[in-house]
Amino acid sequence: GSLGGGLTLIIGDSLKVFTTKDGLASNAIITVNEDIYGNILIGSYGGYSIYDGNSFKNFTLGSKSEYFSN
Prior knowledge:
14% of the residues are buried. Helices cover 0% and strands 43% of the residues. The mean pLDDT is 86. It is built from no helices and six strands.
């Protein structure tokens, strides 16, 4: 997690920091995981984000996600 510094990922040989300016739902990260497709799932105080390697898709409380539907 982070206390407002966003998300830091290792991409190739370097570190990349992502923040709300890059499309992240919140800079206060609670949890990070990777799904079976290689997407990065980020839980934060502002909702959750899915990063597909190119961009973020954000979901907030009350939004509907096809990602977790049955």
